[in-house]
């Protein structure tokens, strides 16, 4: 029978005291990063497993961060949050936390699930995704003083300053895409987006419209709003590019799903020519999210710094959970990250 690895074994291999090992695993903020990494390497090498139940009784902390798994949807844009989850799990582990996953449908369903999790597993904090106007989840958690951070801004929430958040600047991404097309000589640049009222969608549309206006181009009549799907994107692109369209020669899209549909429409026989393109220079298309499908088909797309966003969420939570208590008048921290444009054949 294999002998059980103890905390003393980890301390001996790492060249530190048993208390330092305990601190590195339970309160990593009080240990130097170099020492913590040495302890974690010893833990990994020896296969040491922390007694989670004993640690929770001792510290009153579960070291669990809970987050909802998003629906798969069309299998394209759903991969964005898959990559965010991977980054969150990795960053959480480096800070001594584990990630607890759950599913839920709608705000009310998620609140019910959160309440169940608090009773059964006592997670230390939550990460909320897919923030939106009138988000019931954030007010529920704030009222109960449950620590949380959102990946997404508090859209339209006047009390949004009351919690920390990390987000990606969607307007900066579509602005970069529009500037790229302007530099390539396009003047009639259309936009495929979601119906008004979506915080994320409105933000991305604003970057496109503002950049065209700054270039002296009226964006009126150059956009279409639709549901998020490949077929929806194709239909909206046909409407914008087809007979009676606006002479559009390029499209910026709010998602890769819409962009893939637009790409199919733009490559339809004869449509590119009617839209203002030509056989040698078909309509250019740019998506948003830089999904694996975009890479596979050569779609130019805006890439979100998902690993950095995940690390930012964990850092904000660690500050809430492990750092000194903030003063009552201290504003909560937030971080707005800039995306990057990945240029491929479609633009």
TrEMBL record:
Keywords: DNA-binding, Transcription, Transcription regulation. Pfam families: LacI, Peripla_BP_3. The keyword Flavoprotein does not apply. It comes from the Bacteria. InterPro entries: HTH_LacI, LacI/GalR-like_sensor, Lambda_DNA-bd_dom_sf, Peripla_BP_I. Residues 5-59 form the HTH lacI-type domain. This is Alanine racemase. It comes from Microbispora corallina.
